């Protein structure tokens, strides 16, 4: 295994006979893999003034051992840890770390494969063995799997054990790479902080440019801006999944596990990573086609770009569906996926060069703005092809690609927006000239229309005047009817009084008695039903449905109260009403107060 070196501890022996020496040498080499004196030694990274720490890693097959068996049973034999282990059985690792310094040292140990590992370390304070587990199927929300913090006491040798459990992998017996690495805890914490800070910066930059360009797209409705927004969204999803931030945000669900030279998991963050790559590449391709207008200037290149993007989309989606079905093909398709990404980026750069050679508008701006981002984007799949997965934590191509792409695309969009604005100004001038001609041609039509509208307005005015005259005539007729009613009642009363006075003028001994009868007759004549019926007929000519509505709203009103309210409705004065009812005005006021109180109306209603 790279990084391991074999240390053989020897002891001086008496010189044996030649035959015995050869037999001993043969037995020694045959038993080399089982002896505890041949162990790989790791030099732990150390930058202090003290001595570097060393670690010895050994391994044994698991035969149902417990931690007590490993620490107390001398029959358990560990051998040198090989570079690979078999997925068909479980193992125990024994790691001894020697710290010769006067201060304790804190490290983070990472063990690959990181499938289902349980680390046992002795806690001197609690005087018992404690555990730290890595379970891919039950991640506790950690960003990275397989990392365990450990503290090594000063000037002592610390021993801890790791159980590698492959029982959940199912059948099969494949060789898996075994790797044990150490990193200083302060450096690991600083690197973790750097990764998170870089992710936050990328997300903030993308969000700022997304919101800014949403406004630009809303203003111009340019498809290039829309594709740029989609690329930014895809970049945000990609950097989150690439840095395993989704492990902290989403629940763990593994669709399949691939067992090859290393164990791979196909889970939700992996799906989001593939979909985000597809979104970014397809959006960049569409952005290039729209920005350079390749459909008009480079039709063959445009067709090639569109076909390659669609082919990559089909390839990605089919691979995702097959993996979701439980068939692990990620190990076999990953290299082709990276190659396809490289070819698509190279094709986009070639299309930009062709556009520049033909002096297509905005081609120079496109190349100057996007040359560096495309180089960083191209470096990502190339690094995946040449760099092992555990070492990708130290590569910053995704962050550089996202930052440069966000700024560079914005610069290109600014230049394109200026071009669009210039074209819009030219088109606006032409439209204004055309509008002026159309307005000039339409002025005469408007003038004619104004004359027609004037004539129609005059007709409408005459019609309104006629309607007003008709309403005035009807009002006068109603008032005339009311006045006629009043005159009829007055004339009938006067006629009746005249006849009675003629009778009284005759010599009659019972003159006083007749006068009283006449007074009674005058009082009764003011309340004759026949006269009231005549009044109602004339009144309803002026105020249709008045009595019906009044009766429906106030069914408790008497005939006298109804008559009194009708007089008030006609806005007759108290004196006039008193004359009609043959009572004094004070009685009218009191009657009004009682009536309005009964009807729950304020007295100001009919003032």
Under CATH at level 1, the class of the largest domain stands as Mainly Alpha
Q: Give me the Rg, rounded.
A: 53 Å
Helix content: 55-70%
Number of domains: 3
Q: What distance separates the N and C termini?
A: 113 Å
Indicate the low-confidence ranges by residue numbers: 1-38
Largest sheet: 8 strands, antiparallel
Class per helix and strand makeup: alpha+beta
Shape, principal axes of CA atoms = elongated
> What is the CATH topology of the largest domain?
Rhopdopsin 7-helix transmembrane proteins
The beta-strand count equals 15
Tell me what portion of residues adopts beta-strand conformation.
Answer: 5-15%
Average pLDDT rating:
80
CATH-level-2 architecture of the largest domain: Up-down Bundle
Count every helix, treating DSSP H or I runs of 4 or more residues as helices. Answer: 17
InterPro entries: 7TMR_DISM_rcpt_extracell_dom1, Sig_transdc_resp-reg_C-effctor, WH-like_DNA-bd_sf
Keywords: Membrane, Transmembrane, Transmembrane helix
GO molecular function: DNA binding
Pfam families: 7TMR-DISM_7TM
Task: Walk me through the structure.
This is 7TM-DISM receptor extracellular domain-containing protein. Helices cover 60% and strands 15% of the residues. By secondary structure, it is α+β, with helices and mostly antiparallel strands. The protein folds into 3 domains: 5-189, Immunoglobulin-like (Sandwich), CATH 2.60.40.2380; 192-429, Up-down Bundle (Rhopdopsin 7-helix transmembrane proteins); 545-607, Arc Repressor Mutant, subunit A. Strands 1, 2, 3, 4, 6, 8, 9 and 11 form an 8-stranded antiparallel β-sheet that branches. Strands 10-7-13 form a 3-stranded antiparallel β-sheet. A two-stranded antiparallel ribbon has the order 5-12. Strand 14 (254-259) and strand 15 (263-267) form a beta hairpin. It is elongated. Mean pLDDT is 80; it is low at 1-38.
